[in-house]
């Protein structure tokens, strides 16, 4: 242990540029630091965000216990990249003023939302489409569900669907002479019911995926050695619903051990966005909620 270390907090050896870039992440600002804090609070060990880019294939995080054991962790987010691109652009300006509209609109969009159409930015073509809906008195003012384009069937709804719009709602403009367009990215969702078969299928596929990214994660931990190798998955709004549901406070614990590849000895699922809890699997403990077992503040 050294003078930089404070129980319950990670040591951050990343460069200033790396930290700034991580903090600007639109999905979960500096998720890696959040993970370091969770690991530090649960283990009570010296957790270090060590990958400063100085060495190839350096694991993201190192972990040293007081008894001399050493572990390493790789961190990634289970994210649909196309959805992330759309959400990232819209997050920079989620509300758009539109002088040509008489109503305030909420526009729910999917991963297929067209940021550009025929050379025109969504900032141009969306208000034009909404003005056509207003002119046709298709206002989506009293609608029962978010996925509601079928409320006003016809060419305008068909065009909205093709362009990646999945739901609409409006109300009279709150500001005279100017409407407002609010964009809401469409995430995965479902009923508040645990589906452990689907959960385990997703977890096993995620950690064993034969992709360049996952092969790299497994290779880094294999080469690092150590007593423990932690796989840390950030659950996002684009992660399949059974995994999101597993992080709800009223959900039970999974009952089956994950089918981890030999490079991973421990598994963590941590909400990269909104969640009630995190989950971890240890070979000697099974599944548990670390928030019930903090060793430090």
Describe the structure.
- By secondary structure, this protein is of the alpha/beta class.
- The chain has eight helices and 14 strands.
- The strands form three sheets. An eight-stranded mixed sheet has the order 1-2-3-4-11-12-13-14, with helices on both faces. A four-stranded mixed sheet has the order 5-10-6-9.
- β7 and β8 (about 120) form a beta hairpin.
- It starts with 10 loop residues before the first strand and ends in a 9-residue tail after the last strand.
- The mean pLDDT is about 90.
Helix-strand layout with pairing:
Layout: E1 11-12, H1 16-23, H2 31-43, E2 46-49, E3 61-64, E4 70-78, H3 81-91, E5 95-98, E6 103-109, E7 116-117, E8 120-121, H4 122-135, H5 155-162, E9 165-172, E10 179-185, H6 196-207, H7 212-224, E11 228-235, H8 241-246, E12 266-271, E13 279-282, E14 286-288
Parallel strand pairs: 1-2, 4-11, 6-10, 11-12
Antiparallel strand pairs: 2-3, 3-4, 5-10, 6-9, 7-8, 12-13, 13-14
